[in-house]
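ESCALATION

Customer reports they have been waiting on this structure for their group meeting. Please prioritize. Original submission:
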Amino acid sequence: MAKTAKSQLSAGNALLFQGGIGVVGLILILLFDIPVHNSGLSWLASLGWGCLGAIATYGLLVLLTRVPGLLPGNLERQMRGLHDFAAGFGWPVLIALSLVAGVGEELLFRGAVQGWLTLHVGAFAAVAVASVLFGLVHYVSFTYFLVATGLGVVLGVAYVVSDSMAMIMIWHGVYDIIALFCLLRFPHWFGVTPRPDQ
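Update from on-call: job pushed to the front of the queue and completed.
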């Protein structure tokens, strides 16, 4: 989910922003006649694999954050900002934001950007470039950029392998829900102490 400041965005504006990303992606897909693949898996298989992928990816990320010195810098400041943002909204809004981000960001980055690049430079380069752009859009620090780029690579490769945009959208949306749930429910995992008013 792209980073937003609580003081600058209401729930409606945050949803509108995330939805707008999807609209831009859809317009690019239609404008440049980019093929979006969704025939690789059934909807039920997409749901199952998407949820499983989200759980596995998030679990791996939590494990990687436990390895001393693996990730440069400190994620605590970024996690504090995300925690403060998420704590300002109720669960219906956070779930809606996660799902809209899953659909919108995947339409743009995997559907439009990766899809167009695949046609022109091949799948490997397309995944790499789309993932770096995904990381840059989520840039709040170099460490967070690396994490987001890594997630982009995982999602990009999964899209190529599965031929299922639905699975990638589900994976991304469920990943965001899990990440927000864990951050709000277990903030100490990330070195975050909730503020007294939260």
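Sent to customer with the following note: The mean pLDDT is 90.
Escalation resolved.
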